[in-house]
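Lab meeting prep.
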Amino acid sequence: MKSCETLNGIGTRSSLLWTYTFQPTGGRSTKKNPKIIELSKTLNALPIFEERPDAEKFRNPNGVATKLSNFLPFDENYKGKGLDHNSKLDKELFQEFRTQKPRLHKIAQQIKLVVSNSDLKELIEAIEEDDESRDDSVLEGQILYRLHKVRERERKIVQRKKDQALAQSGKLICEACEFVFADFYGPLGVGFIECHHRVPLSQFKVEKRTALDDLALVCSNCHRMLHKKIDALSIEDLKMLVRYPR
């Protein structure tokens, strides 16, 4: 993935719609199609929409059917015209997942699992927005992104990761740039470091518990850089950038 914006685009609206689009049994993209109605309910149940300009029309079956029709111009097998109200991101993602349908299906299934998990929905609702997830065009992609942030803030596993690092080296060292808050800030920085979840968003599993090896300890700056290219930049990649800046 090229950026967090592109990655967020594989979120709810795109992944669920395309999973439907690529299914040969999906049927016609009309507001009366039972699958379109079901998809509309799923989109509305996601824990990310604080503001709904028009609650009655918001992600309703007609709107979902229209969005599906926006993808038709990119489908070389479709003989009609489709709708013109599509975006560059729509085209990029349609073309990317044209040959990766199983991966896309897995992403969609994970998003659907969030809807059925009331405890997880509550945790995701509590996660704040940041600079990488404010764009309304990728809003629904925040489900996987916010889930990522939920996982890397689980207190017990984060504390275990810190305890492990302290037992091994006696310090909390950024795994990318080797910054130590306690060395720079003195007592104020003792015990402080952030935790990053290594698993790419596209491989996230709602039902999987976080393991110590899934986490990496990083400073705040490195953590922001990792989130900026969240599905393309690994800890190891960032470490190389720090050592050999371009």
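Slide two material, second protein:
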Amino acid sequence: MKNYKEIDLSQNKTYSANDRVSKVTFDKGSTIYQPSSSFRKFLNSLPSLLKAEDLRNVAKAVVKAKKLKKPIIVMIGGHIIKTGCSPLLINLVSQGFITHVASNGSAAIHDTELARFGHTS
């Protein structure tokens, strides 16, 4: 077994968590979503930070593009298909929220496996 030199922590400085600037605060947490509610209420139930805020901004941009009759192109990888979200994607296409879907090879493989065998990995 190798002998490793003990790490020198003498230069480390500590401070109180009360003094630290943080992105996440309790008041920005999510609220309880009611399954019978609208998608807007679902989005509003998400916390106002990090990727949840990005999702909210994407949803607003898609709605705005649809109102302006602009194309909405979705680029996906295999996980959208692999995780069973293709019915959601199909619904968004059929409602005119998505005008084009671009995918990579893994999306095509998962889609083919689901169509041909009824399962994928």
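Talking points for slide two:
The chain has a mean pLDDT of 86.
The CA atoms of residues 45 and 113 lie 35 Å apart.
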